[in-house]
Amino acid sequence: MSSMLSAGPALARCLTSHTIQTRRCISRNVQGCILAIRREDQSVWERRAPLGPSHVRQLVKDGVNVIVQPSNRRAYPMQAYQSAGAKIQEDISEASVVIGVKQVPIDQLVPNRTYCFFSHTIKAQEANMPLLDAILEKISILG
């Protein structure tokens, strides 16, 4: 599958840079980190994934533990993620970093996690402000 199916190829390139020096740095900084790819639940039509199996394979090679929440709608089959070294499971609560394409429902935000997803909160759209408020309340952004 092409990287066009991934919503975050820039993130993947950042995390899985192919230069030796950067890969050494990444390996030191993320080795043992647990990253989760969450199932998209905002729309039944959403098939995109924040990372593809090739990106997961590189992360696993660099020492990152990757959990993929099962989804029968995702553009990539679950078996491809599993073959890339990801663990397929419903519970992603052990992950310190959670990535997705669309925003996480407010009731599923877990405190003290790093989230990476697209949202329209920066536009100050009234419907999206509760999510921004919840993130500011539950998540330590500035440390």
Shape: globular
Q: Would you identify the CATH architecture?
A: 3-Layer(aba) Sandwich
Helix content: 25-40%
Mean pLDDT: 78
What is the total number of structural domains? 1
Task: Name some characteristics of this structure.
Rossmann fold, AASS, 143 residues, disordered N terminus, AlaDH/PNT_N, saccharopine dehydrogenase activity, 5-stranded parallel β-sheet, 5 strands
Structure description:
- It is globular and about 40 Å long.
- Helix content is 30%, strand content 11%.
- It starts with 8 loop residues before the first helix and ends in a 5-residue tail after the last helix.
- The chain has helices at 9-15, 20-30, 53-61, 78-83, 129-138; strands spanning 34-37, 65-68, 87-88, 97-99, 114-116.
- It has 143 residues and is an alpha/beta fold.
- It is built from 5 helices and 5 strands; from the N terminus they run ααβαβαβββα.
Topology overview:
Blueprint: H1 9-15, H2 20-30, E1 34-37, H3 53-61, E2 65-68, H4 78-83, E3 87-88, E4 97-99, E5 114-116, H5 129-138
Parallel strand pairs: 1-2, 1-4, 2-3, 4-5
Describe what is shown at a glance.
The chain has helices at residues 9-15, 20-30, 53-61, 78-83, 129-138, and strands at residues 34-37, 65-68, 87-88, 97-99, 114-116. It is an alpha/beta fold. It has a 5-stranded parallel β-sheet with strand order 3-2-1-4-5.
